[in-house]
Design a protein that fits this description.
Blueprint lengths: L8 H11 L4 H17 L9 H8 L3 H9 L2 H5 L5 H6 L12 H12 L9 H15 L10 E7 L2 E7 L4 E3 L3 E3 L3 H8 L7 H7 L5 E12 L9 E12 L2 E10 L12 E10 H7 L3 H22 L3 H4 E7 L1 H8 L14 H7 L11 E3 L2 H4 L4 H19 L6 H6 L1
Parallel strand pairs: 4-10
Antiparallel strand pairs: 1-2, 2-3, 5-8, 5-9, 6-7, 7-8
Length: 403
């Protein structure tokens, strides 16, 4: 049996009823919730004035609060069909404990045609932003690692670089790793008790911590863009049992692979300490990565017969890989702050630091949420706030699009 989430919500509703006629009431409630989020368009609220955002939210407040209170795992219990009860906890990011807010917010963008995939992926998006910034007269210095934030009289006034040089500034904005920024670049001087507790309690298990990427000499454009394969028997990957595989198939984007071929990625949970211990012996580390890739290919071959023979490229990235490339502490991504998820979305984690003027943080670590949209909108929102503070108009191409 299979549950498919199409961009056409009417088609999804029909499929759900076909899968489980006895769940008619629960299916209707789910579809109505998606429709409400289509109208709410939560990811665009930051583009509105505070008063207009409030007027937009009020009619959908019940759905919004309900989506925060119910996790995906708990929401699945509203259905009677055993398959749906097993599948629905993994409906978004394969995280049963995630609030339904995440799924409804993202999926409603797809069904409402207000969100999608940037052609070429995150690199193409970053390059487009780079071009726009340079066209506006901005300057970028690459390969210039920051080692400290220069602070004078409790005000950030610039950054010190690895080569010993300094760059002075009116404002300092960090889009980097949160822990490194707060405790390394600033020495922990402006971390209050809330931030210290947050960074003292990272999860030992990193969601999406290990990525197995494959280059396949096969056209998979007829397959879904993403699959969650529920396994009959758990498989041990990276020292942990897994009862499912989350598969992403990039055949829809011609920039991801040559014609007739497909880039495929499987992301699984991983533990930094497990891989760090293995890395003490490079041979063991490499062999375990090879075993992991082989186990993943074996399960994919069962779903796509003959796929093993078509695999031309294999790359396994562990939390150590992420740490090396991004400087994120332990290869981690941010986790939600404790307490009410909706309040966490409003407050973020560390957009500013107590007692430090002239300093801001943007991106996933500032917001405590994941994803490229989070990173991009966080920076944009900061500039909007600064313009409002200085009494200056904020104008962008996006404003003209959303009017």
């Amino acid at each position: 049996r299979a549950l498919t989430l199409y961009a056409d919500l009417d088609r999804v509703e029909e499929e759900l009823h076909a899968l489980s006629p006895v769940d008619s009431a629960a299916i209707g409630a789910y579809v109505r919730a998606v429709r409400q989020f289509e109208a709410l368009r939560p990811f665009e609220l930051s583009l509105l004035s505070p008063m207009r955002a409030l007027r937009t939210v009020v009619p959908h407040l019940g759905a919004l609060i309900g989506s925060v209170r119910a996790t995906q795992g708990a929401y699945a219990e509203r259905f009677r069909d055993p398959f749906l009860r097993r599948a629905l906890p993994y409906i978004q990011y394969s995280i049963p404990e995630a609030p339904m807010l995440a799924h409804l917010g993202i999926y409603s963008q797809i069904t409402g045609r207000t969100g999608g995939w940037p052609a070429g992926g995150s690199l193409a998006l970053a390059r487009a932003m780079e071009r726009r910034y340079l066209d506006l007269g901005g300057e970028i210095r690459y390969r210039a690692r920051v080692t400290r934030v220069i602070v004078e009289n409790d005000r950030a006034v610039g950054v010190g670089l690895e080569d010993g040089s300094e760059e002075r500034a009116d404002l300092v904005v960090s889009a980097g790793d949160g822990r490194s920024t707060i405790f390394d670049l600033l020495g922990g001087e402006y971390a209050d008790e809330r931030l210290r507790r947050y960074y003292a309690s990272p999860s030992a298990m990193q969601q999406f911590g290990v990525h197995v990427s494959l280059g396949v000499a096969r056209d998979l454009s007829h397959e879904p863009h993403a699959l969650t394969l529920l396994l009959d028997e758990p498989v041990v990957l990276g020292g942990q049992p897994h009862d499912r595989l989350d598969v992403e198939i990039y055949a829809f984007d011609p920039g991801m692979a040559p014609p007739g071929k497909t880039a495929v990625k499987v992301a699984i949970d991983g533990r930094y300490d497990y891989w760090k211990d293995l890395a003490k012996d490079p041979t063991r580390y490499r062999k375990d990565k090879d075993r992991l890739a082989e186990a993943v290919i074996e399960r994919l071959d069962a779903r796509f017969p003959g796929l093993r023979a078509d695999v031309e490229v294999v790359d396994v990235a562990t939390p150590l890989t992420t740490e090396r490339y991004t400087a994120n502490w332990r290869g981690l991504q941010p986790w939600s702050p404790p307490g009410n998820p909706l309040l966490g979305m409003v407050r973020g984690v560390s957009r500013t630091l107590p007692g430090l003027a002239g300093f801001h943080m943007v991106g996933q670590w500032a917001e405590g949420m994941l994803g490229i949209p989070t990173a991009v909108s966080s920076g944009r929102d900061l500039i909007r706030r600064l313009c409002r503070r200085d009494g200056r108009p904020f104008v962008s191409d996006a404003d003209r699009v959303t009017q």
